[in-house]
Amino acid sequence: VQVAHRAIMNRLKWGLSHFDVGVEDRVLLSTTASFDVSVPEILAPLQVGAAVVIARPDGRRDPAYLADLIRRERVTGADFVPSLLEAFVNEPLAKECTSLRWIEVAGEAFPPALANRVVEVLPGCGVHNLYGPTEASVEVTAYQHVPGADRVPIGAPVWNTQVYVLDASLRPVAPGVSGELYLAGTGLARGYLGQTDLTATRFVACPFGEPGSRMYRTGDVVRWNEDGQVEYIGRSDF
Questions:
Q1: Where does the AMP-dependent synthetase/ligase domain start and stop, copy by copy (predicted)?
Q2: Residue 103, beta-bridge partner list
Q3: Domains in the chain and their CATH numbers?
Q4: What is the pLDDT along the chain (238 residues), one digit of tens a residue?
């Protein structure tokens, strides 16, 4: 996937502002460099003079090690997939990770019961559900979980991002009605390197923007809820 510098910088600068990252913060790097989430883990904190705490190569698979590392190094921000987050909060040391100010959750559906469990174990930590494909520069929507809520939407668009929920004829659907999720804006990738046919299939003309603008067809089925947040339902191709 060809992602422009301008596109990824939009994501990094949004994250720095959204999580209020400053020079006193210590951000955990536990994702391998072959995954897109590693880009904000590495590059975002360094832009503001924050520290990057690097986990050992196999550390992401070891929740006990991560809990000890976060506690010992006073980590303030971390990223988890829900399956690992569940194992992490079940570790006895997790409740001692009181330095955590925010947790970013992405990569899988985020069960409300797990979100509430995290808030229970770490009441001073904000829990944020993020969604996005590499084709739109890592993440494009975000939602901060409300303790006790029985749903965890994927949220609202980040900076300079447009989100469309459309039917098969590319018409916007009403709130509460499911449709396919399309993405547009600064974070959109250029396409797939050397795969012009696939690029043309997934990156299509955007009827809602300026002439020549494009949008990315995610294949994800979603709906707008009554609060203006996007809720994930499933895939259109399964």
A1: 1-193
A2: 78, 127
A3: 5-157 (3.40.50.12780), 161-235 (2.30.38.10)
A4: 999 999 999 999 999 999 999 999 999 999 999 999 999 999 999 999 999 999 999 999 999 999 999 999 999 999 999 999 999 999 999 999 999 999 999 999 999 999 999 999 999 999 999 999 999 999 999 999 999 999 999 999 999 999 999 999 999 999 999 999 999 999 999 999 999 999 999 999 999 999 999 999 999 999 999 999 999 999 987 5
